[in-house]
Design brief:
single chain, 297 residues, Arc Repressor Mutant, subunit A, eight-stranded mixed β-sheet, 11 helices, 12 strands, globular
C-alpha cells in the first residue's frame, strides 16, 4: 500500500465520481481505477460499489476512509511541523463553515490569515452543521465553524459569539414600522425558512413550539439569498440572525421582546486529532479577533 493509493482513494470517496476525481488529480481515469483496484485487492474487500454511472462507498470503504483520512492528516501534519522548524507556518487549512459565516465574518478572517501567513493554503467547504460535524469526525477538515455545542461527543469547541434572532420582513410589510414585537405576534404569520436538515430551523421550530406559537412555514428554501429576496417582496416573514441578513438592504429586522432566541456559534475540532500548524494559526486568530467563551469538550 502506497501513499498515492490513499490519496487517490480519498479523492474518489470525496467526489464519488471517478472521472472527475481523476481529472482533479491530473491522472487518467484508468490510472485511478487501477490503483483503487490494487488497494481493494490488498484490503481484500471492494471499497466502492458501482451501479451504472453512480459510485458509492461500501461498508468497508466507509470504514477504510476514516482511517485513510487520519493517516493522510498525520503525514501532512508531520511535513508541516518539519517545515515550521524554519519559523514559517505553512500547509493547508481544511475548514468547514455554515453558509451564514460566508456572507458575514468569514471573508475578513480568511483575508487576515492570508495577510499574516501567506504560506497557508485554505480549502473551504460549506454545509449544514451535521455535515460539518461528520466531516470533522471523519478527518476531512481541521476546524469547523458551526453551532455549538456540537452533537458529536468526540468534538471539542469554543464559543465565538451569540446571535439574536429577529423577525425579518419586507419594507412594505404591515409590521415593518414596529420597533419590536412579542411572541404572540408571530402566531399565524406565514414564514419562509430553510429546511429541517439545518440545525437553525430545528432550533427555531423547537423554541416556538415550546412557547405555544403555531407558525406556518409555507416556503422552504436553502438558498438564503433567495429567501431574503422573497421576504423583501412581502410574501413571507423570516426568523433570522443579523449575521444572515448582513448588509441585505431590502428588509427590516424587528426584535422579538420578552423571550428572545439566540443561536450560539463557535469553532469545533476533533478531540482525538492533532491540530495542525495552519489550523492552530487560524484558531489563535479567532481567539484574538473574537471574544470567545470557555473551552468545552
Amino acid at each position: 500500500m502506497e501513499l498515492r493509493h490513499l490519496r487517490y482513494f480519498a479523492r474518489a470517496a470525496d467526489m464519488l465520481h471517478f472521472t472527475q476525481a481523476a481529472e482533479s488529480l491530473y491522472i487518467s481515469q484508468s490510472t485511478l481505477s487501477r490503483d483503487i483496484q490494487q488497494l481493494e485487492e490488498e484490503i481484500g474487500l471492494p471499497l466502492f460499489k458501482r451501479i451504472g454511472r453512480n459510485v458509492h462507498l461500501t461498508d468497508a470503504g466507509t470504514t477504510f476512509l476514516h482511517h485513510a483520512l487520519l493517516a493522510l492528516r498525520e503525514i501532512e501534519t508531520a511535513r508541516e511541523q518539519i517545515a515550521n522548524l524554519n519559523g514559517v507556518v505553512s500547509g493547508t487549512l481544511h475548514l468547514g463553515a455554515l453558509l451564514t459565516f460566508g456572507r458575514g465574518v468569514l471573508p475578513a478572517w480568511i483575508c487576515a490569515i492570508n495577510a499574516a501567513y501567506p504560506q497557508i493554503k485554505i480549502s473551504l467547504k460549506t454545509g449544514t452543521s451535521d455535515f460539518i460535524e461528520q466531516t470533522l469526525v471523519s478527518g476531512g477538515i481541521d476546524l469547523g465553524l458551526s453551532f455549538v455545542p456540537p452533537t458529536a461527543p468526540s468534538l471539542c469547541h469554543e464559543v465565538l459569539f451569540n446571535e439574536e434572532l429577529f423577525l425579518v420582513v419586507g419594507k412594505e410589510h404591515e409590521l415593518a414600522g414596529r420597533s419590536e414585537v412579542d411572541l404572540e405576534t408571530l402566531q399565524g404569520l406565514a414564514f419562509g425558512a430553510v429546511s429541517q436538515q439545518w440545525a437553525a430551523r430545528r432550533i427555531i421550530d423547537s423554541f416556538l413550539s415550546e412557547h405555544g406559537i403555531d407558525h406556518a412555514v409555507i416556503i422552504e428554501i436553502d438558498d438564503l439569498q433567495a429567501l431574503l429576496k422573497i421576504i423583501s417582496q412581502n410574501k413571507v416573514c423570516g426568523l433570522l440572525a443579523r449575521l444572515v441578513v448582513s448588509d441585505y438592504p431590502d428588509v427590516c429586522l424587528i426584535p422579538v421582546k420578552g423571550k428572545p432566541l439566540f443561536l450560539k456559534y463557535g469553532v469545533l475540532w476533533a478531540g482525538d486529532a492533532t491540530i495542525r500548524p495552519a489550523a492552530q494559526a487560524f484558531l489563535q486568530h479567532l481567539r484574538t479577533a473574537v471574544p470567545m467563551g470557555n473551552h468545552a469538550d
